[in-house]
Design brief:
By secondary structure, the chain is α+β, with helices and mostly antiparallel strands. It has a single domain, classed as Histidine-containing Protein, Chain: A, CATH 3.30.1340. The protein has three helices and three strands; from the N terminus they run ααββαβ. Strands 1-2-3 form a three-stranded mixed beta sheet. The longest helix has 24 residues. The chain is elongated. It starts with a helix and ends with a strand.
Length: 104
């Protein structure tokens, strides 16, 4: 009986947590998970690139739209970051807010 009560408590807490996620973001738990998965995949693919600047790009996902922020060294890096994000499964669009750092 004790294990059943503990399991029931855990399940209840998970349901409450998922409901809270839905109410704070306006998205379902599944949408939150999808967006987190997309963000993680984009970050991993950017990190896999050998260009160190790409690892400093901020990545956020909302309703399968990826938002890229930060500063990169060149227009080529800016374009490459968008290309990487667009090629991640389930991404519907990419908003490119990256700026190219002015050369000194």
């Amino acid at each position: 009986m004790r294990h059943f009560t503990a399991a029931l408590t855990l399940v209840t807490l998970m349901v409450v947590a998922l409901a809270a996620c839905t109410s704070t973001t306006g998205k379902t738990a599944g949408e939150n998970i999808d967006d987190m998965t997309i963000t993680s995949e984009v970050k991993a693919k950017l990190a896999a690139e050998k260009i160190s600047t790409l690892t400093r790009i901020g990545v956020e996902t909302n309703h399968r739209t990826v938002y890229l922020t930060g500063t990169v060294d060149s227009e080529e890096m800016r374009s490459r970051a968008v290309e990487i994000a667009q090629n991640v499964k389930h991404v519907s669009s990419v908003v490119n807010n990256l700026t190219v750092q002015a050369t000194r």
